[in-house]
Write a structure and sequence with these properties.
heterodimer, A: 2 domains, 70% helix, B: alpha/beta, 3 domains, 3-stranded antiparallel beta sheet, 15 strands, 19% strand
Chain lengths: 465, 369
């Protein structure tokens, strides 16, 4: 069940909010655990058992580490390693087994076979989340959670369960035990949720359709400009899809009384790739920084070791996004650019006018998204070829068509990718404009509902006849 | 200040939770439709609640399909989405252009060259094997005919060029140069449907008279049969604010009587089925719509037969052609897979009548034998 579905908006969410606010505070973690397990089980009626097992095992390891970390450091370390092995095996088995088997088989090594098991929804997110708990415990960054219910509520809390942000246990440990729900918080939560829903339904989905239409054109019709429009649409789609989802998660978190960390900070206004990765999917970057890069030594063991560490992190980052070579390539590419920036590019870019930095960053980001978008590497490169005039034409009538048909959408996407909404230009932030909030909320919800209902509109018309 | 802030907060919270709550309850209580008129399809049935289905891995998708298929006031939401697209200055919705004069026109932006080539090859091979000269009528769609009404920035395939290329491909057959007879005029196509209308079809008839029958066309007059026709383009575009079209009966000045026999044996008096005017797709008024095979017998005592392999563009031509042939046999290759060659006799003319977009995408011509 995704947030932008009618089942979620008009059945699940109202019931959950009603029950959550009707029960007394001390029952709320339990309610949250039950409704979250239901949410997960709705889409994964079998794999929900893995989720439950993962909760119990990580909680038990947490207790063991908590009991030993002070006086029996070695013992605690052994527990920590065992716990890591458990989580990584879970992730590795479900996400990477088939990839490994297929690649080995392709090399003629037949000792393992692909199993074609479905990937449990959100496993990449929740294993990373649960791993943060024993590590932070071991490092004395947090204390053990006494209540299995509260720990379970943390792991599978439905707002951030399937697409992040990756919430670290330390970040919400306090709120898990006691939280205050205020009208300010609930109101902010609604605003945030609506912003996310509109991003996902009105912007991401529509931009995505344009990209898909253009990517499906015969090669002869993909003029350079048309291919760029497609790539730009994908660039908008992935940003509004992902950040919209994070906004909805953060918004619902606020409604329930939790403060999740921000996950996106206007990444497309970056002037360098280094900056881009400080603004894009921040919870993942921080996770890799704190749990991989720094433990590997970060930049403390000389430059050559630092380069190695960066490459390890980016190989893993790429691989985390999916068990396929295009994601690995996508991550490695960013690793290389980040190293080049550290070596000399950052200095150059600092001296250059701002617009050069913006153009440089966005071109690299857009091109790399085309690698990301196509699990079939040959298709990705063919598309990039088209962006550089592979079909022999710069632009044509079809370019004009896509531009004309989607002009307003593209303009809105471009404006909304900048922090302009946080300035005085945003009428809704002015003292008069604020009165429009209730109306804007209603309009946004109704417009999104229309687009979601329409997605199921499937005229069976013998249209061709 | 604090009071104002509270007021905004409370009203926003009430609106948000109110819409979610009220719509949820409304939706749960609203009577469920089983058929969507506009989509011309049966809506998804309620998901099966057996454990094997719930744990089978498809339950969530099935539930969502059912839930959204039956979301209350479905047509309102579809129309609202189309309105928002128009408001955002999009020039199409679901690939249907919002054209001028309340006209809805299907985009014709892609043709499958493989299908096109193999369709042409199929017909040429058939002609050679059975030693017949087929009469081929391919009709350009409204994206060509009504292009003067299309919004700025539209992009479609060049149908004139396609027809020109096909003329070369079909060298040696009687390929009817339709563009000589059919003017590029929006009035020759329905506003809310993808077919040509009775005026457009008249030019098709005129072309057949000149290129096949070598005679002057007969005279006809028209009577309104329905003024509430909301065609396929109306449904697909979601532009439900568009005013409906007119369906007209085509009446020969010299009366001809005809009996249409459908593939299930049902007989119709004439070439119309008036009962169809009460349905959603009123275009099926003409020869009762799509059938694998239809036989029309008329009192034109000339002993001639027209065997027409066709799509639905031909249906509105039949009233005209039924004044020229004693027998007409209409074949829809999507459903009719028996040998068409068995239908051919010494006194028969073989026609292939398709809209151009369909001819460039329908693989069912492969069943021709």
């Amino acid at each position: 069940m995704v947030f932008s579905s009618l089942t979620f908006l008009y059945a699940y969410l109202p019931i959950v909010l009603a029950v959550y606010f009707l029960v007394p505070m001390r029952w709320r973690n339990f309610v949250l655990l039950i409704v979250s397990l239901f949410f997960y089980g709705w889409g994964e009626p079998v794999y929900v058992l893995i989720m439950i097992a993962s909760i119990i095992i990580n909680w038990l390891f947490g207790r063991a580490i908590g009991n030993t970390r002070k006086d029996h450091r070695d013992q605690a370390k052994r527990y920590l390693i065992l716990c890591m092995v458990f989580n990584l095996t879970l992730l590795g088995f479900f996400k990477y087994w088939d990839f490994l088997a297929e690649n080995l088989n392709a090399l003629g090594l037949m000792f393992i076979r692909p199993l074609h098991l479905g990937l449990p929804i959100g496993i990449s997110f929740y294993t990373f989340q649960t791993m943060s708990y024993p590590i932070d415990l071991y490092r004395f960054d947090t204390d053990p959670q006494e209540s299995l219910v509260s720990f379970g509520a943390y792991v599978c809390m439905f707002p951030q369960l399937i697409a992040g942000p990756i919430v670290r246990y330390t970040d919400i440990a306090r709120q898990l035990n006691s939280r205050i729900i205020t009208m300010d918080g609930f109101y902010e939560g609604i605003r945030r949720f609506m912003a996310g829903l509109c991003k996902k339904v009105l912007l991401a989905n529509n931009a995505g359709q344009v990209y898909e239409a253009i990517a499906a054109l015969p090669a002869a019709q993909q003029s350079a400009a048309t291919a760029w429009i497609g790539a730009i649409c994908y660039t908008f789609q992935i940003y509004y899809d992902f950040s919209g989802y994070s906004d909805m998660a953060i918004g619902m978190g606020k409604m329930l009384g939790f403060d999740f960390l921000e996950n996106f900070n206007y990444p497309y206004i970056s002037k360098t790739i280094t900056e881009f990765w400080r603004r894009w999917h921040m919870s993942l970057s921080f996770w890799f920084r704190d749990y991989v890069y720094i433990p590997l030594g970060g930049n403390r063991h000389g430059f050559r070791r630092q380069i190695l560490n960066i490459m390890i992190v980016w190989l893993l980052t790429g691989f985390w996004h999916g068990a396929s070579w295009n994601f690995v390539l996508w991550g490695v590419f960013y690793g290389i650019v980040l190293i080049l920036e550290k070596l000399f590019l950052l200095k150059w870019l600092k001296k250059a006018p701002d617009w050069i930095g913006h153009v440089y960053t966005m071109i690299l980001v857009i091109l790399n998204w085309m690698i990301f978008a196509n699990t079939d590497l040959a298709k990705g490169f063919a598309y990039i070829g088209a962006m550089f005039g592979g079909c022999g034409r710069l632009a044509d009538g079809l370019t004009l068509y896509y531009l004309r048909d989607n002009l307003v959408l593209l303009v809105i996407c471009a404006i909304a990718a900048t922090p302009i909404a946080k300035t005085k230009w945003n009428f809704l932030r002015s003292s008069k404009g604020e009165y429009l909030m209730p109306l804007v909320t209603a309009a946004g919800l109704i417009a999104c509902t229309a687009f979601i209902v329409d997605a199921s509109y499937n005229p069976f018309l013998y249209f061709r006849f | 200040m604090q009071k104002k802030k509270r007021l905004i907060q409370i009203s926003t919270i009430l609106i948000f939770t109110g819409i979610l709550g009220i719509f949820s309850i409304w939706n749960a209580l609203a009577p469920k439709e089983t058929v969507s008129w506009n989509e011309n399809r049966t809506l998804a049935p309620a998901p099966d609640l057996s454990p094997s289905h719930i744990f089978g891995g498809r339950f969530d998708d099935d539930f969502e399909t059912w839930f959204s298929d039956h979301y209350m006031n479905r047509d309102f939401w579809i129309e609202l989405k189309s309105m928002i697209r128009r408001g955002m200055l999009a020039i199409e919705n679901n690939d249907i252009y919002y054209a001028k004069e309340e006209r809805l026109v299907s985009r014709f932006a892609s043709a499958d060259q493989t299908v096109l080539d193999s369709n042409a090859e199929t017909i040429l091979t058939f002609a050679e094997e059975h030693n017949v000269t087929p009469n081929i009528l391919l009709v350009p769609t409204a994206a060509w005919g009504a292009s003067s009404t299309l919004p700025a920035g539209h992009w479609d395939l060049d149908q004139e060029a396609m027809l020109g290329e096909l003329a070369d491909t079909f060298d040696g057959t009687n390929y009817i140069p339709i563009l000589k007879y059919l003017p590029q005029d929006p009035a020759l196509y329905f506003r809310t449907d993808h077919h040509w209308n009775e005026k457009g079809a008249w030019h098709g008839y005129e072309a057949i008279c000149a290129e096949v029958l070598h005679k002057e066309p007969n005279a006809f007059r028209y009577e309104d049969a329905s003024s509430s026709f909301c065609g396929t383009m109306y449904s697909k575009s979601g532009a439900f604010w568009t005013k409906p079209d007119m369906i007209r009966t085509i009446i020969p000045e010299t009366p001809v009587s005809a009996v249409t026999t459908l593939d299930d044996g049902t007989k119709l008096d004439g070439v119309y089925n008036p009962a169809r005017l009460a349905e959603k797709d009123q275009y099926t008024y003409y020869i009762d719509g799509n059938h694998a095979r239809e036989d029309i017998h008329t009192d034109v005592n000339n002993g001639r037969t027209a065997v027409i392999v066709k799509d639905s563009y031909s249906h509105i031509l039949v009233p005209y052609l039924s004044t020229e042939y004693e027998d007409l046999i209409l074949i829809d290759l999507r459903y009719y897979h028996a040998p068409v060659s068995d239908l051919l006799g010494s006194n028969s003319d073989l026609y292939f009548i398709y809209s151009l977009d369909n001819f460039a995408s329908d693989p069912n011509l492969a069943f021709l034998r």
